[in-house]
Design goal:
The protein is an alpha/beta fold. The protein has 12 helices and 11 strands. Helix 5 links the parallel strand 6 and strand 7. Helix 4 packs across helix 5, helix 6 packs across helix 10 and helix 8 crosses helix 9. The longest helix is centred in the middle third of the chain and has 19 residues. The chain starts with a helix and ends in a 19-residue tail after the last helix.
């Protein structure tokens, strides 16, 4: 990226987009919040590595609005995954959908992705955790408060977010995981990926192409995404180059498990698409049963595949996530737990 571009972004340049009327396929309800969405770009610093941080929210949003941080996966940068603008379509930008619902929505590009610095690192899962910790300093500076957010992670982004919750629980109010994998046992996608492990271990980056991005949307089900989506994603993502880091691919085939469910103390929602070879149901159920917080949900949604937020049934995904994030606070119970006697 040239120096003038860096200086422009470093000021936190504000952009504006005027949202259209919400459609049924765009958000959990047809009613959208009035007003325009503003987008702001920042830089975080991780020991000298510049990391791009991005924020969208309604203009004049109250300072106490709920905050949502979105964590991208292995092959897309933050804006491509969470703020995709598709001609003649609504609801592909998850950031816009949740901004219209009243959230202060954040994301970032991890080291080696998108606008962020490209280094010799392969940007593994732990590196992503450190990226998120650096981003929290930006959130704190810009909101003038100690950041406590809901986190959403997709695929390897789910691993980053959950491991961040293990290591930095003070920042994580709620945790939502999509396309998550715990141990990787019997996962078809990871079995195929492991065949190329020597190549991933030999280099800190792997090539991507339009063909690769098209395959992402057909590998689990050919009809789960619109046919043109792979080419649109490729056009957006490949403006940053024709390669992405290898670290998450190596971690997901050699180092799992990377998250300790017993140490995720906040409420958790696990979203599972009907068609997703990244993990088995048994693997996810095993993780879910060990989560200690009683406010936990596991939702399997029909008509979706690996990249659920960009699928034809993405509105169902938005609905489930929004319902989790807006669950009323619990009223603590008094008295003692019953014994389930036969005459009850």
């Amino acid at each position: 990226m040239n120096e003038s571009r860096r200086n422009f972004l470093a000021t936190g340049a504000t952009l504006a987009a005027v949202p259209g009327a919400a459609a049924a396929g765009e958000s959990p309800s047809k009613a959208s919040s009035a007003g325009r969405i503003v987008a702001t770009e920042y830089w975080a610093d991780k020991n000298g590595v510049k990391l791009w941080v991005y924020r969208k929210r309604l203009e004049n949003l109250p300072s106490d609005a709920p905050r949502l941080f979105l964590v991208h996966g292995s092959s897309y940068s933050g804006k491509t995954m969470f703020d995709l603008q598709v001609p003649d379509r609504e609801g592909y930008s998850m950031m816009d959908v949740f901004a219209r619902l009243g959230y202060d929505v954040w994301t970032m590009d991890h080291e080696g992705y998108g606008h962020s610095d490209r280094t010799t690192s392969n940007s593994d899962i732990q590196s992503g955790v450190e990226d998120l910790a650096a981003a929290m300093k930006v959130v704190e500076r810009e909101t003038k408060s100690k950041p406590t957010l809901a986190f959403f992670g997709q695929s390897s982004g789910a691993l980053r977010a959950a491991r961040f919750a293990n290591q930095h629980p003070q920042y994580v109010d709620k945790l939502a995981l999509d396309a998550f994998v715990w141990t990787g046992k019997d996962a078809p996608t990871l079995a195929e990926r492991k065949k190329n492990l020597p190549k991933y271990q030999a280099s800190n980056r792997r090539p991507v192409s339009a063909e690769f991005y098209r395959s992402v949307f057909t590998r689990d089900h050919s009809g789960a995404a619109e046919p043109m989506l792979g080419d649109i994603v490729a056009k957006e993502e490949m403006q940053y180059g024709d390669s992405v880091p290898t670290g998450t691919y190596v971690d997901m085939t050699t180092k799992l498990p990377l998250v300790d469910p017993d140490k995720v103390m906040c409420p958790v929602m696990i979203l599972r698409a009907e068609h997703d070879g990244i993990a088995t149901d048994e693997d996810i159920v095993g993780f879910y049963t060990r989560l200690p917080n009683p406010d936990k949900q596991m939702v399997k949604i029909g008509g979706l595949a690996h990249t659920a937020l960009l699928g034809v049934n993405r509105a169902r995904f938005h609905h489930a996530l929004h319902a989790f994030l807006t669950m009323p606070s619990r009223i603590d119970l008094h008295g003692g737990k019953g014994h389930g006697g036969p005459d009850a």
